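To illustrate the input format used throughout this study, we show a single complete record. The first block contains the structure-token representation of the backbone; no residue identities are included at this stage. The design step must infer an amino acid for every position from geometry alone.
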């Protein structure tokens, strides 16, 4: 483990300072994550691992979060949307700006019957 840590520290020092817009090479990121996971299995805290590598713990935490599967995954069934009704939809305009939309002709007839009562 000591060997891996010193190799990673050397690779990190060759890169120079990191910050916004200055990402890590994918290969190095994979090695850092592998080392971090191994150290965490040994009981080391993420803050300790980051300090060993000379990195910010937030960076390692974010990377680990991207690799972790979602705990809230649920299987769903995808269904095709219902076929639209072939019946014509009607818009009824009434007095004083009343407007009723989306009714079929039979529904308009029922509406008119109830209003007339």
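Output of the design step:
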């Amino acid at each position: 483990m000591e060997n891996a840590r010193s190799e990673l520290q050397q690779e990190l020092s060759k890169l120079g300072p990191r910050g916004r817009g200055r990402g890590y090479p994918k290969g190095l990121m994979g090695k850092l994550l592998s080392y971090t996971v191994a150290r965490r299995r040994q009981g080391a805290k993420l803050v300790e691992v980051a300090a060993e590598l000379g990195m910010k713990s937030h960076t390692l935490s974010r990377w680990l979060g991207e690799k972790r599967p979602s705990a809230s995954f649920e299987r769903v069934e995808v269904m095709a949307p219902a076929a639209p009704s072939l019946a014509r939809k009607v818009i009824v305009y009434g007095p004083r700006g009343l407007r009723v939309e989306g009714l079929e002709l039979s529904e308009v007839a029922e509406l008119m019957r109830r209003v007339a009562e």
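Structural context for interpreting the output: The longest helix spans residues 26-41. The mean pLDDT is 82.
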